[in-house]
Each structure stands twice: as C-alpha cells, then as structure tokens.
Amino acid sequence: MKSLIKKLANTNIGILLRNSLNFKPESSKSSEKDYPISVSDAFPWRTDNGYKTKFKYSDILNLFYKIKKSWVEFHFYSKNNELIKIEKVNDLNLSNELEISSKYLNNLEDYGTFYIYHFSENTKDLNNKDIISNRCYLGYSQNNNLYSFAHGNTLGKFTSIYSNKTFLTDIVKTSLFQNHTYTIQKYFDGFDKNELFFTNPTSKTIKFSIENKNYELKPNYSLLVEIKNSIISIKSNCLFFRPTIFSYKNKYLDVHHS
Amino acid sequence: MNFFYGISNDLFKSEIQIPLFQNRNFKKSNLKLFKSYPKNNKWILQEISSKKINDYFYILKNEDILSNEIFFLADETILNEFDDKKLKNFNNFTDTSPAFRANFKIYLNQGGFSSYQSEYPYSMVTKKGTILSSISSIANSDADKNYVLIKNIFEEPIEENFKAYLVNYKTKSIEEQFEIKTNYTNCIEIKNKLIKPEIFLVTDRYLGIPMYVSIKNNFLSFEHTHPPHSYTNNFEKVTNLKKEINEIIN
What we know:
The complex is a heterodimer.
Chain A: H1 2-9, H2 12-20, E1 37-41, E2 43-46, E3 51-58, H3 60-65, E4 71-78, E5 83-89, E6 95-100, E7 111-119, E8 131-133, E9 138-142, E10 148-150, E11 155-160, E12 180-183, E13 193-199, E14 206-210, E15 213-217, E16 222-227, E17 233-236, E18 244-249, E19 252-257
Parallel strand pairs in A: 1-8
Antiparallel strand pairs in A: 1-11, 2-7, 3-6, 3-9, 4-5, 4-7, 9-10, 12-17, 13-16, 13-18, 14-15, 14-17, 18-19
Chain B: E1 2-3, E2 13-19, E3 32-39, E4 42-48, E5 57-60, E6 70-74, H1 78-81, E7 102-107, E8 113-118, E9 120-121, H2 122-125, E10 132-134, E11 145-152, E12 161-168, E13 173-181, E14 184-190, E15 199-203, E16 209-216, E17 219-224, H3 235-249
Antiparallel strand pairs in B: 1-9, 2-5, 2-7, 3-4, 3-6, 7-8, 10-15, 11-14, 11-16, 12-13, 12-15, 16-17
C-alpha cells in the first residue's frame, strides 16, 4: 500500500497535487524515457534596445561520447511563442558560438527564447538512460560593448537524440494555485535600472505577481519586467520560476541568473 | 551548508551580499555572519557584527574581504563548538532548493561591474579531486584581458600549493601551468591565443570553482562554469574524459 501511494505521489497528477497543497513540493522532474535525451534550457535572447546575444556551446556528444558527425538544432521563438527560425549546425567544434543579432533574426528587434538540441544517428555509443544538456553560456552585449555572460537558468524542453521530431516539456512543475514564492537573493539597491527576464518553460499558463502587480505568461512566452524595489519576491504557480537579471548602472550592464 | 567568498587583488574589487533569508521562505533569520581563514594550520574564527545593512542582508565591501577568507551563517554556539582543525557542516539553513546563494560582484574603479549568484557547498569542502573546464566555452577572445578565478575551500586549514594547467586536448600537451593554493581565491591570466576549443583548464589535486572574468574598455563579465557532470548524467563518460585529460598532466 505504501509503495502504491509513493508511486501515485510521483505521477504528474500526484506532483501537481503535492505542489498545490504545498506538501513535499517538487520543482522539477527529469523524464525517464527508453531513448537517450537531449535537454535544453529555455534560453533568453535579446535584440531589442541595441542588444545582441551570443551563445557558446559544447559538442557534448564528441567530447564525452567520442561521437563524431553529430549536429545541433536551434529553435528560435518570439516572446509570444511564434516559431521564428530553426537552424541546423553540422560542423561542430568542441566549443562553438552563435551570435544572435537582429540581422540574424530577420531584422527583428525584440526578445524571446531559444532551445538547442543535440542529435546523432549513432546508436551504439549511447545508453537509453543517457541525458545530455548544454547549459552554457549566454552573453548579452548592448551597443556593441563587452558581452556579459550567464549560464542557462531554466530547463525547458527535451527530445530524443535520435531525432524523432517530438519535443516534450514540463520538466519544471507547476501548482494549481499561486502558492509558491521565490525571493531573489540579491539586494537591488544603487542601480539605475533592473529588469527581470521571465520565460515560461511549462505547458501551463503561469500566473505570477511582483511588487503587487499581476502577470500571466502563456506556455513558452517570455516577458521583461522592470522592478523598483530592493528586495524582490515572485509569487507564482510555478515551482522553478527564476528570471535572468539585467542590472544597469551608468553605461554598464550586469547579467546573471537569479 | 554553503560557504561564501570574494577576492582581494590589484586587478578588481569585490563585494558580497549574503542574504539572511531562504529563497523559498522569506523570513529574517537570527543567524550571525562569521568569517574563517587558515593561519598556522588552524582555522581562525571571527564574528562579523557591523556589516548587516538591514534585517535581510549582510553586505561585505572590498575592504572587508581577503582572498583567504570564507564566510558563513551560524548561530553563536559556534563560538564554543568550533574545531580549529576542521570545517564542519555547522547547520542546514543554507541547504535549500534552488541553492542558497550570495551575490558575488567584482568591479572596477572606472565603473564596470559584473556578478553572479555564488555558493561553495560543504559537500565540496570535504573532497579532493580535479577541476576540468573548457576555456573557450566562456572566456572571450575579443576582450582585452581574460582571467580565471579558482576558489578552493578544503576542510583542513592548510595553505598548500597545487597546480593548474592549460592543456591542449588535441595535441595532448601542456600549454601553460600555474601554481595556485588551497583555501584561497586564486587568479590566473589566460592569454588570448589560448582561448581555443581544444584548451581545457585542469587542476592536479584539489577541487574548486572556476570563475571567468573578461575585461574590455572597463566593462566586465564574470560567471562561474559548470562541472562536467552537468553536461551528462553518464558518470562513466565524465570519469573517462577526466582520466584522459589527467594523463596529459601526469
């Protein structure tokens, strides 16, 4: 009986109930599949206000698995979850980079999210339980100044390394109620401006409030919120809702995960 | 529990904001801030009383920080229980998910600044091992200068030298080596010509957290790197890669 309850508590519905009741809440759960998985963060890109974004990534399959001829795919989405672009990169170095400018995104000056997936046709060097994830590194440059780098912040989607065209989400878990609060452990004092970049990594609408204002973020939407207070608490129905922080002072910029 | 740290050197200044609340439970704590550093093979313990700026944060300015110091939250009973021969897991206040973090900022007098949310978990303090970090995954060849800060905290109050290497994975050779030390925030400069996909930073005996700094026109970028096991859950593959690269330095 005990083991049955434990099993039920770990199903998606069980986790939703636990999170809604705040009873042993679970913020994320990696999916177990019978094929190797490539997981991507929901990476924020910016080309608004003189920004460009640089993404640095490793050829994980070559470095760790000695698998040559793997490839990656980038999927770019607007802030309203419209697919803008898919780019496939075949010739990978151990370490690679991609510059995301407005020109690269069809002259779009805006912001949104993107994902990176690793693929290979090599089935003999991968185990079905293998999970790989490229969590590094995003640089943000405003007005062509030095990129300020931060790593990936929110696990978003995953797919089979064997390229089955199915992209799954909901690694990050939600609650039925807006009953989870996350307070950023930074004192936002002495800056000219602070922006929080939110992205919804789930298939559910996220409702959240900051500084007594309410927001809704549909699945895979993103939103920039300017904040005024020194201490910031985010109340939401998502258990891992951590924004990327952009802090400004004079002409200088600092970007980091929260 | 987590330890926090900064850096003191001639290149840049640092500041640490240590919160007195958990990120999922915004209640002020009555814990105090302490610092510790190794001296003559003993850990010295000192309470930091005057740096609490409000109920929720301690802020340590550059003049409050030395590279051999570590900072942590604890209650006053530590003054009686502290073992000057070994760091302990003093309490579980900072054992949270997401991780309990302090904002670690570096800055220049000219105005550039950059920070990241930092922590040094106790689980790393008790272990020896090696660092493996890809240089070009975060160093910036367009910058004027690139540095790697390597923070090591080891449970014993030792100040022992060990080596950091920049190795070439393709040619299986050592490009450059550096002497760094335990229980210290070390700083090494990376020449731009070595910012290439095949160059990796490795250490020979101790773990640590590598943090990359780039400087250009007084702008700064500062971020830590992930350990190899954050790229794959296959620990055998991580061990094999580490073994392969460690053979280059041995």
